């Protein structure tokens, strides 16, 4: 086991929230150490064009934007490292975090920015075409398919909301629902809105067999389990809206989580139920899940951490 080290401010996770927290923490002379986690740069590293982040009038590739975030945090003085937090102990101060199961970091303040991971169907074609017409965020990527036919899979409120969003941009939206209408998880009001939207077709009792296309999505093959028939839908994009899984598991013994596993924060702040531990980005946001809101909450976390350290005489 390697030796432990003591740091002033530890940031767990990268992406817009973690890197923004690092920028603010470094400028406040909090000497932040950031561990990037299992996916350095977060979910944006598996996207392509980003057009809705302010400051990029011509758009930017998701991975390139995350490189910019990282470089800015480094220029401010943040110590950015590879490594995955595998265990924590928040029972006393300083807080204890183990990296890669062996290196112990003790920190006066901890900022959690571990994000959330989209749930996927598990199809080879889905992963192969991810970023080339396959997406887990209609709000992020729907604009690129304006006037095109698209498909979305899911049966909850989020799937309905995204189908309605897409219906305003796209020519036609095929909504693929695995079970029957009576088993849909979405609220009745959301189901009614979808049904009353002329350019949304709902395919019940339907399983996705394959996303079609070579370099980009050209269609989707589905199977109706009630009739045992297969159909190919010609679409330019395939959106997966079956939920997200917040990366919060290692904190469950210490932090308050909601029913879906998102870290609870005190409204209007990034503070958790443990003093000195703050959460930002998608690990605590199950509503907006946008790069710009994640970055904003990363700023909040750094400011909250700075105030905490000052109040505790640790600044």
Report on the structure:
There is one protein chain. The chain starts with a strand and ends with a helix. The strands form five sheets. Strands 1, 2, 5, 6, 7, 8 and 19 form a seven-stranded mixed sheet that branches. The protein has a five-stranded parallel sheet with strand order 10-17-11-12-13, with helices on one face. A three-stranded antiparallel sheet has the order 14-15-16. With 315 residues, it is of the alpha/beta class. It has seven helices and 19 strands. The model has no long low-confidence stretch (mean pLDDT 94). The chain is 24% helix and 27% strand. The relative contact order is 0.18. The chain folds into two domains: 181 residues, 3-Layer(bba) Sandwich (FAD/NAD(P)-binding domain); 121 residues, FAD/NAD(P)-binding domain.
């Amino acid at each position: 086991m390697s030796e432990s080290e003591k740091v002033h401010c530890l940031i767990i996770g990268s992406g817009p929230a973690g890197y923004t927290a690092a920028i603010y923490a470094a400028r406040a002379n909090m000497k932040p150490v950031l561990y990037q986690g299992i996916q350095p740069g977060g979910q944006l590293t598996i996207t392509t064009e980003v057009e809705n982040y302010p400051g990029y009038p011509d758009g930017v590739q998701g991975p390139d934007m995350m490189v910019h975030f990282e470089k800015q945090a480094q220029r401010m003085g943040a110590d950015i490292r590879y490594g995955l937090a595998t265990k924590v102990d928040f029972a006393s101060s300083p807080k204890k975090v183990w990296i890669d199961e062996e290196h112990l970091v003790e920190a006066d303040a901890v900022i959690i920015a571990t994000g959330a991971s989209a749930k996927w169907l598990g199809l080879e074609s889905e992963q192969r075409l991810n970023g080339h017409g396959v997406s887990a965020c209609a709000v992020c990527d729907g604009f690129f398919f304006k006037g095109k036919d698209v498909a979305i899979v899911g049966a909850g409120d989020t799937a309905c909301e995204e189908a309605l969003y897409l219906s305003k941009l796209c020519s036609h939206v095929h909504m693929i629902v695995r079970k029957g209408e009576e088993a849909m998880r979405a609220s009745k009001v959301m189901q009614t809105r979808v049904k009353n939207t002329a350019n949304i077709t709902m395919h019940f009792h339907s399983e996705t067999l394959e996303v079609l296309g070579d370099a980009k999505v050209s269609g989707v093959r589905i199977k109706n389990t009630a009739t045992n028939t297969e159909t190919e839908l010609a679409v330019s994009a395939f959106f997966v809206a079956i939920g997200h899984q917040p990366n919060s598991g290692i904190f469950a013994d210490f932090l308050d989580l909601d029913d879906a596993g998102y870290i609870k924060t005190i409204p209007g702040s990034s503070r958790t139920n443990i003093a000195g531990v703050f959460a930002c980005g998608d690990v605590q946001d199950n509503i907006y899940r946008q790069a710009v809101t994640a970055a904003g909450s990363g700023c909040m976390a750094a400011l909250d951490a700075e105030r905490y350290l000052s109040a505790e005489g640790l600044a």
